[in-house]
Amino acid sequence: MQDIKFWRKRPVLVYPIPPAPPTAILIGGFRPSGNTRVFEQGWNEEAASFAPAAIAAAPAQLDALRGTPIPSLRNAVIALVRPHEHRLTEEDRERLWRAFRVPVFEQRIDESGCLLASECEAHDGLHIEARELPPREGEVLETAPCGCGRTTPRLITPERIENLRKVAAYAR
């Protein structure tokens, strides 16, 4: 009985584009739900045999996995960034894309794994999910509607804004 209470206190992973495919969560603090499984020891034989279509992990774990062939990975990698960790840079995203060949999503979580902000399929900043989440140094608060259709405020870096402008200019 105590074990059930322990798991219920843990948050579930919020997949960027529901429904979640088989997803390996490589850090503790989450509880399994639906197609997600938690591998607190990180990537190992058990995680590989789960054959995840997506992986959610700390940025350092994703970096460490870059040389690991994961044949089942076909949906996404989700970088779970805690308050003391740096956001993904465009170079980080490019490295992860080259390594895994799937979209990269960033989610900002608190120390207990609760979602604070998340990137949507438009990749136009982090939608604020918590009541109060002040921008970090180098971020601005964007209140214009997102390309995904959501109207929640987003945290955007000037680097991201510039890259989005380049993409928009190229598309014209």
Summarize the structure.
The protein has 172 residues and is of the alpha/beta class. It has 5 helices and 9 strands. The chain has a 9-stranded mixed β-sheet with strand order 2-1-3-4-5-6-7-9-8.
What would you say this structure looks like, in words?
The chain has 172 residues and is an alpha/beta fold. It has a single domain, classed as Rossmann fold, CATH 3.40.50. It is built from five helices and nine strands. The chain has helices spanning 2-8, 45-50, 59-64, 90-100, 158-171, and strands spanning 23-25, 36-38, 54-57, 76-81, 104-109, 115-119, 126-128, 140-142, 154-156. It has a nine-stranded mixed sheet with strand order 2-1-3-4-5-6-7-9-8. Strand 6 (115-119) and strand 7 (126-128) form a beta hairpin. The longest helix is centred in the last third of the chain and has 14 residues, at 158-171. It is globular, with a radius of gyration of 16 Å. The mean pLDDT is 88.
